[in-house]
Amino acid sequence: MDKTTQIYGIRAIIEAVNTNEEIDKVFLQKGLRGDLIKELESLLRRNEINVSYVPPEKLNRLTKGNHQGAVATISPITFHTLEGLIERVQLKEKPALFLLLDQLSDVRNFGAIIRTAECSGVDGIIIQKKGAAPVTADTIKTSAGAAFKVPIAKVDHLKDAVFYLQASGIKVLAASEKTNTSLYDVSFNEAIAIVMGSEDRGISPSILKAADYTAKLPLLGEIESLNVSVACALFLYEAVRQRMNYN
Fold first, then answer.
1. Please, where are the H alpha helices in 19-120?
2. Cβ proximity of 155 and 128 under 8 Å
3. Main-chain dihedrals φ then ψ at residue 147, nearest 5 degrees
4. 3.90.1150.10, 3.40.1280.10, 3.30.559.30, 3.50.50.60: which CATH number matches 82-246?
5. Strands 23-29 and 70-74, bridge-based pairing
6. Neighbour tally for 58: CB within 10 Å
7. Helix or strand run (H / E) with residue 34
8. Is the pTM of this model over 0.85?
9. Which of the following CATH numbers is that of domain 3-74: 3.10.20.310, 3.30.1330.30, 3.30.1490.20, 3.40.50.800?
């Protein structure tokens, strides 16, 4: 891990949170006791910061320093607000294309998706603050630097982002196998936001219910699903294909 994207030590992390440092995730050693660790845990809960409890070997791999049982990863990018992102995109002539990621957890999948998003002209990616894959050095590397080019917004609740997009005139399409509608029967020639789910659970039921449309990829083999980054690429490039033909 790139040392410029991490903080280690309980007091240092407390100070970073209190000064509004953009922390993606905190790794805490299992079984730690004491008032200081309780203070940190309480602070992390209040600020809804992702926490993973791990063995000391994991922390030793993350940093060579005296981590005191706590390592935090800091985002190497600056996040946008949802409101500012939508306002900026609506000034463009072409219809908006957004991507929402519901609890995606693998940083390499995240990086691959960001790379595809940049190549396919996505206007912005929206993720939830809690539970989403962090933007780490691995994410940046897998994205081939695209993470510095595609605006990413963090929101408290993805469902609220869906409602805000809809109120802004942007349709929401959820990628799900729990539908009879094929991806190829959906029109992408209007402002639209595509929702992709997590690697293991897919899209949460509340997001599926709130979406304007659902669509699936036709799968002709015996395996029931594609890797999320591959599925995302197919959805995005169907949007590219339709918009090129439309224009």
1. 35-46, 56-62, 82-89, 107-119
2. yes
3. -65, -20
4. 3.40.1280.10
5. antiparallel
6. 14
7. none
8. no
9. 3.30.1330.30
What does the block give as tokens for 69?
A: 């049982």
- Measured between alpha carbons, how far is 165 from 161 in angstroms, rounded to an integer? 6
- Are 126 and 82 a contacting pair, CB within 8 Å? yes
Q: What residues have CB less than 8 Å from 84, skipping those under 6 apart?
A: none
- Summarised one tens digit per residue, pLDDT across range 99-139 is 999 989 888 999 999 999 999 999 999 999 877 887 877 88
Domain boundaries, the chain: 3-74, 82-246
Token readout for 225 is 């699903």
* 1 pLDDT higher than 70: no
Measured CA to CA, the distance from residue 88 to residue 65 in angstroms comes to: 42
Six-digit token string for 8: 């280690």
Q: For 163-193, what is each residue's pLDDT tens digit?
A: 999 999 999 999 998 899 999 999 999 999 9
Q: 93 — phi, psi (to 5°)?
A: -80, -35
pLDDT class for 64, splitting at 50, 70, 90?
confident
